[in-house]
Amino acid sequence: MAGLAAAFGSGAMTNSIEEFEVADVILATGTNTTENHPVIASRIKRAVKSGKTKLIVVDPRKIDLVKYAAIWLRQRPGTDVAVFNGMMRYIIKENLHAKEYVETRTENFEALQACLEKYTPEYVEKISGVPASDLIKAARMYAEAPKGSIAYCMGITQHTTGADNVKTIANLAMLCGNVGIEGGGVNPLRGQNNVQGACDMGCLPNVYTGYQQVANADARAKFAKAWGRELSDKPGLTIMEMMEGAHKGEIKAMFIMGENPMVSDPDLDHVGASLKKLDLLVVQDIFLTETAQLADVVLPAASFAEKDGTFSNTERRVQMVRKAVNPPGLAKPDWQILAEMSTACGYPQSYNSAEEIFTEIATLTPSYAGITYQRIKNVGIQWPCPNAEHQGTKFLHKDSFSRGKGLFHAIGFIEPAELPDEEYPFCLTTGRVLYHYHTGTMSRRSKGLVQRYPESLVEINEVDANKLNVLDGDMLMLNSRRGTVSAKAWITDRVAPGVVFMNFHFDEALVNKITNPALDPVGKIPEYKVCAVSVQRAG
Known about the structure:
The chain is α/β, with parallel strands linked by helices. Helix content is 30%, strand content 17%.
């Protein structure tokens, strides 16, 4: 993943949100944009309605964006690599790829080309269910567009082949010369408001701020000098690795901040058992979440409206957040809680403000070096911004990649970790809905949102509903190798026969009791999007 991070901004959008409206084609894959990113979706829809931009949707579900698409590829869940490999093979065979770009700005093309040889449109159709003629049409549409943008989200990453999926998308973009141009790029749409900022600040187990590697001796020495402590060269653990460590008794204490794994993590019975084995569980949050209810200590935190600071959004824009109201009771800003804990643990931190902390961040982080509170008080700045005269970067990799040349990865298709079989004949996939946010900690406290979407539903195709003698609104029971969950049926063509969909916002219907904790070997992300289940009427 390090090579990919170097080439594509460590999971950041290479381009800007406004650039969707100047793209000639947008390929949206694994992103239910209208429900998960409605502001960005409005730009995509506006671009299509203008008549200038064509939209390709690659998604197993008939999401709202399909209404705006010139073509929709409905692939079998988990077959993304095969679909994109098939598109690339056709593009190369028809000499539609950006030959000069590939020759001057990339490497390892020959290995990619050899890997793609077997992914004929007919072969891909057998794997994915996407008609060969539709695959060809989509490939030609993307390749012939002067400016092609790819947008993706967790429908691409939440697989045991998530890293492969992202690299394959990157291959497609580079093959057609769409990286380093306005209106192009590879654009992951972040799932929450400050996910990008958290990653930028080193909330990943292998990096410091600005994606400076823990394993890099120079970076380590710089931070050690600034902080006055020797620092380890060993990366930390990911969330799922921490849970497994707790289950095995190797981790004795855990600090959970603004996260609700008792709703959001896969195989929840295992997660609960792991947390209960800890000697100490501390949870810092704005509400008493399902996870906080298990905690030995709960630290009340201030919400976004109750503190000063910055967020970095999905297009790498660092924006100022200003305190509007005082936090209730004993709640404090996150930075203050962490500083006080650090001091109590023997490492004094005596910051006086969020701005003081940001100044330190800019000093140690090259991509943030030119950003100050004064400069972003009215409009945010997109990193990288290396100095005070720099105006920020609208799109990345204009003349070259961070690593020099963009690296093609020769990647073959691998099936998901768990496929439907005789005992569990359906494929379950999960996601979000427009009216709720993540584990519902905030959105389910809003009466209006609850009225609009009061309970979890199981999307099931009419063909399957008829076979199971299920009517709209019947209670369904979904079983996997890990557990059981029940919710009402919604008979709809949004899902294909053999596929069911549930959202994960409702603790009354904890779909993550049954999802598969199998991990991507590189990104360590669980396979939320493909899980074998049986479905039957409850009772």
